[in-house]
Amino acid sequence: MSKPLPSHARVVIIGGGIHGCSVAYHLAREGWTDVVLLERKQLTSGTTWHAAGLVGQLQGSHATTAFAKYGIELLQEIEAETGQNPGYRRSGSISIAINEERLAELKRKADFASLFGIEAQYLAAPEIAERWPLMNPDGVLGGIYMPSDGSANPIDLTTALAKGARTHGAKIFEHVKVEAVEVEGGRARAVRTAEGRITADVVVNCGGMWARELGRQNGVGVPLHACEHYYLVTEPIADLPSDLPVLRSYCDGTYWKEDAGKLLFGFAHFHPKAWGTDGISEDFCFDSLPFVEEDVMDVLELAMNRVPVLQNVGIRTFFNGPESYSHDGRFTLGEAPDIKGYYVLAGVNSTGIQSGPGAGRALAQWIMKGHPPMDLSEMDPKRCEEFQTRDPYLRERCAETLVLTYAMHWPGRQRESVRNLRRTPFYHAMKAHGACYAELQGWERPGWFAPEGVTPEYDYSFGRPSWFPHAQAEQKAAREAVAMFDYSMLGKLMVEGKDAEAFLQRVCTNDMALPMGRVAYTLMLNERGGIESDVTVARHADDAFMVMSSISHTRRDYLHLRDALRPDEDVRLRDATTAYGVLAIAGPKSRDLLAAVSDADLSNAAFPFNSLRHFHIGHAPVFAQRLSYTGELGWEIFVTPDFAEHVFDVLMAAGAPLGLRLAGGEALNALRIEKGFLHWGHDMAYSDAPHQVGLGFVCKPDKGTAFVGRDAYLERKAANEGPYLCFVKLTDPTPLLHHNEPVLRDGKVVGYVTAGAWSCAQEAAVGLCLLSAPDGATGKKTLTHGRYSVMIEGREFMAEVSLVPFHDPASERMLA
């Protein structure tokens, strides 16, 4: 290090790969010049330097696609600003399919591209062979061509970002290892190195595969692990076209790109290996790992069949390098949940070069604005439970993420590694009745129930999988008789203390001055009027409330409540999720079932909707909330784990003559979509306002206490801008809706499906969708005109769009 470290910086960034340099560049470009970047060795020396450099715009989500699209824009502009050529070549890309399922997936990806104005064309096999003459077309059914894709030089791109950051005033120091991030009073205060200490207002962990260990020092969970990742480079190939598009054959597990007269081809991995399980060497710098031929031989054989020239040309480079993968295939991007001013950007699953510029810009904007610039909830560090950030879990889960990178991206695909961690009190009883389990946040949750003689095992399809009729029968039971669901894994957060009501009045939009035994559905907003969460709140005592959260957001909701507490408030929070098993019964005969097993007065007058009562089922003390996520008459029954199986047995016996059927998450999802009930993270997030998604009815701006975000809520409501949540149903009963299908009005893309399912009652696919109003118009009512259709696998299907749910819009059944 030739120059001394400053004693203070506004922002200190740890890590000099593509992400750290991107954050520094975007901060400095916006005028935050007091920025220091520290790199333990040399810029790009960890993972960035050996990346393949592919830059494809279309990614797996709205946020990551926006990152990649911006990345292309920056690649086209940054040389003019910095004088550094990032090595960008717009060669296009072709993804091929060798079976009908993969072709369907590629067509759905092309549909998704239309939401962003990204050009994607279907090509038949002969057209692909013409553009990629080295390819063996045997078995190729077709593919998708994206002309704006290409490749960049990872080192040159990172150098350009670093040069731009320096030009705008940021300081970059190499060969400076961060020993610790100092935290005081719940806030990052300084970074300590062997060369000195730098106090800071903000610290950013862009440590790549070191980010997990660095975060762990301060209790910050970064769910990633390095895995071995291979690519090969051939000897020069005579007359190899320099303008070859990038070619991806997901089924063969391989991608190819032209590389200075040679072919570089990389691998998906059928036999992944976590790397660095005993730690990463202190000397690691521009290093590679041993190449084990057996690890890639099966993929290599597929590659030589798909591109036969490989059989006759030598291999110049056999390369194996570490890449970071996350436990769920998503980035970690955002502020750490327990330390203010500590931000993380890491775990990007081999998409660093194409996503790095956009991800770095997004994090820089978050730091500058104090809040996310767009919906980044899928990447939130708060999504992780403690066990999901430990090495034993990550070694297995992150390696599976690598395997799934090129696998089929089926709707509802279940992970196979690290299962059976968290089981509800009804797990064994339901398994004995044929439960096929799905997994979420470590919880085993029934997805559907197999009848006798059917193996309870998931298979997948964009159409109707083998278990489709069983989930339909579960829907039918809920609509016509009675169905029972396991809700035990839903979050149960107790808010207790003499100031509990006042606290909840401030953080919740609905009126929390509830009488004893009453329940309310409510939102929690941020200061910008966006929806931070939706929960139900039940009053159990003068000083005790239970807040119920969705499975995947329990920790996030807990942290949101915790962070909203004021020092002078007498309020205690505790997570009581595992204190109760919960069985939900739903359907027109649910009152009959509950009456058969208890002596409770279940009349509307005595047990109205949004209330709770204590009574007994069999010999077990229970309490039940009259609520519904299905749109049917129903109750949620809470029982302590010791009595759980007894209550289950009593209900099953009493329900047999009523047509009781056990039901799982697949049926529940369809039922709630048909009824128009929302799920935070799918149909709304913290960037959406209540008026957009039809939830203004639970916002009470005139209650005695001004709730967080009230003024912003009123401003956004008055402006009445979209997009708006609506309900969509296909007129053709054959195709299915899953997620992200484009919705068209008069042939123009105006929105997308946020969640879809096939409804037994409607005998058609139904969905929730976010739609933009016609140009220059505001208000949801402007959406009622026009001809609607939905794009599915390259075909338009006529659709009905409604401003009210398709099932029981007046809620007469639910309130019966």
From TrEMBL:
InterPro entries: FAD-dep_OxRdtase, FAD/NAD-bd_sf, FAO_M, GcvT/YgfZ/DmdA, GcvT/YgfZ_C, GcvT_C, GCVT_N, TrmE/GcvT-like. Keywords: Oxidoreductase. Residues 725-808 form the Aminomethyltransferase C-terminal domain. Residues 369-423 form the FAD dependent oxidoreductase central domain. Residues 10-366 form the FAD dependent oxidoreductase domain. Pfam families: DAO, FAO_M, GCV_T, GCV_T_C. Residues 426-703 form the GCVT N-terminal domain. Belongs to the GcvT family. This is FAD-dependent oxidoreductase.
